[in-house]
Every structure is written in C-alpha cells, then in structure tokens.
C-alpha cells in the first residue's frame, strides 16, 4: 500500500515499505505539512500545510488546492497556513487555521464559510502561541464518533472547545484542561485522549516564565466535561501526538519544549501502554535520544511511525526524517529515510 509522508519540506510518496531514499517522490510542494488525513466516508486524501489545504483523488499522485482562507503566520517564515482539516460523515469539510479561525464547506470544498461563533468564545482573548506575534493555532479539529455535528477543537495555546451544532456555536471548555493542546483523539462518544505541551498562560502571566506548565497525556471519560492526566510522573511530558492500535496506546514525549530542540538540548522517550494508560513502558527506538516520533499509521498490519525534529522555532535542516516499523516482537527498525523532518504519515490505496 502507498505511504504518504508529510514533512517540513512538502509531501512525499512511496509505493511500499521499506523503501530507499531515492524511491521517495516529492509530490506536493506545500512547505510545512501539518496534517495528512483520510476517512472511509470521504473521497480522497487531504493535506493541511503552510501553503493551504489540498486533496488527492488518485492515491497522492496529483493534488488540487481547496483554496481554504488562510491564517497569517507560521514559525518558520511568517506565512499563512492551515493547521487542521476534517471531513465528517454528513459530507461537510472543516479547516482550522491560525489566529485561529474555523472554515466549513458543504459543497465538497468548492466554497468555504467562516464559523464565526468560534470567535465568540469567552476565553479567546487569552489564547496565544509562544512565538511573536503570538497568534494561536487550531492544531486539533475532530468529530465525535457517530456524531458528525459534535465537534472538538484544540487550540495551541487556548484549551479545548466543543460544538453540538456543526460549528455554529461553541462551548468554552478551557478551564477543564491545560492550555497547550496539540491533538485530540476521540476513542468513543465519551472517551477521548489529548496531548499537551508546556505553555500555561495563567502561570506565565504570574511571572513564572514561559513553558512552565505540566503538559502530558490526558483522558476524558465524560465527553470533555473533565480531564485527568494519565502519565502522571512522566518527565517526558511535552507530548505532540498519541496513537491507539489493537489495544496499545503509543506516545512520544520530550523533556523540553521545541526551543530546546534547536540545539539538541533535550531528550525524548517513546512509551507504550497495553492497559489504556494505567501503566506505560518506555521502549527503545532508532533516533534516540533526540528525534521526536510525531506520527503513526498501520501498514499491512504493522504499526509504522515517523520521526525528526518538526516544528521548531529555527527549522532543523540538518536532521533527516525517519520511518520506522514495529515488529511482532515489539522492536522498532528503520525502514526508510527522507530528506526532511517527518510530521505526518498516512497509508492510502494506490
């Protein structure tokens, strides 16, 4: 099966895994890739990036620009970008951008309308990212399983917010979880996981400094009414992404926030849990001690993942992206390299 590899230098495509470096074809020049996603209920595969949102209907060979209205900054070059994209089972498309805004299309991406109710959330004035000019980013946008009208938005940094009417109106839930939300992973209608970082606006405003929050991996069992941290005591608590497959929870965390990644002043760890977070085991992987595992997928029944040093204030051009495969014995091996940091992977039909 075909593997699409999002990086901080565009989108690559390989026909199979493992692969050689020269077999990775750059199929989309879209600079920084922030999402690569597909759904059984939506035609094609979608990419969100620092140049916009795109869709392919031929397994990633060719791409069309969905012309989503854009935000207005990115860490690397001050450019516009789309941070998140979502297709729901009722046929709607959603895109989340900087500042942040949410746009919706009900005509298969032909036209987009801003969901202005998202601007009315009471805590919006407190949202910001750590890098000047401090506009927040809509990193996470998901629908509750079986409820396409119920949306979950995760803001970096501004917490989690919920909509029960396809994004027309929103409920502010910033007070239920830490500010620095990176990903939301709905497991069921009521059970979701969330990954977080260290930026805490309340602590920062008290003069305690930047990146002083706790971060970590969080879980709700009541559809976002309350959250609890399930990796308590974990020092590697700057967590970008989490993945669940066949009863195992996977996540990778860093000891420090991305500014420390610029000069390798950090260490990372990869964890697995077979009891949904009651216990986590640290496991070795190629790329230790500095490469962050950002993304996972399942390819021909095997868990694969991608790593690098993605989305740092000063882009790391000296780090190659790595694709790894987890064997039946739980050991990880490198099965491919690309010339840029890996941010997202997605397996699609050729």
Question: In a nutshell, what does this entry contain?
Answer:
The chain has 350 residues and is mainly β. It has a single domain (2-348), classed as Methylamine Dehydrogenase, Chain H.
SSE arrangement:
Elements lengths: L1 E6 L2 E5 L10 E4 L4 E6 L6 E5 L2 E5 L7 E2 L16 E6 L5 E7 L2 E4 L7 E2 L21 E9 L2 E10 L2 E5 L7 E2 L8 E6 L5 E5 L4 H5 L10 E5 L7 E2 L8 E8 L2 E7 L13 E6 L7 E3 L8 E8 L2 E7 L12 E6 L5 E7 L3 E7 L2
Antiparallel strand pairs: 1-2, 1-28, 2-3, 4-5, 5-6, 6-7, 8-9, 9-10, 9-12, 10-11, 12-13, 13-14, 14-15, 16-17, 17-18, 18-19, 20-21, 21-22, 22-23, 24-25, 25-26, 26-27
How many E strands?
Answer: 28
Helix count, DSSP H or I runs of 4 or more residues = 1
Order of helices and strands: EEEEEEEEEEEEEEEEEHEEEEEEEEEEE
Q: Structural class of the secondary elements?
A: mainly beta
The gyration radius over C-alpha positions equals 19 Å
What is the class in the CATH system? Mainly Beta
Distance between the termini: 6 Å
The CATH superfamily is: YVTN repeat-like/Quinoprotein amine dehydrogenase
Q: What value does the average pLDDT take?
A: 91
How much of the sequence lies in strands comes to: 35-45%
The CATH topology is Methylamine Dehydrogenase, Chain H
Helix content: under 10%
Uncertain segments? 72-79, 206-210
Principal-axis shape equals globular
General description of the model:
The chain is mostly beta strands and 350 residues long. It has one domain (2-348): YVTN repeat-like/Quinoprotein amine dehydrogenase (Methylamine Dehydrogenase, Chain H). The chain contains one helix and 28 strands. It has one helix spanning 201-205; strands at 2-7, 10-14, 25-28, 33-38, 45-49, 52-56, 64-65, 82-87, 93-99, 102-105, 113-114, 136-144, 147-156, 159-163, 171-172, 181-186, 192-196, 216-220, 228-229, 238-245, 248-254, 268-273, 281-283, 292-299, 302-308, 321-326, 332-338, 342-348. Strands 8, 9, 10, 11, 12, 13, 14 and 15 form an eight-stranded antiparallel β-sheet that branches. A four-stranded antiparallel β-sheet has the order 3-2-1-28, with no helix packed on it. It has a four-stranded antiparallel β-sheet with strand order 4-5-6-7, with no helix packed on it. It is globular and about 50 Å long. The relative contact order is 0.13.
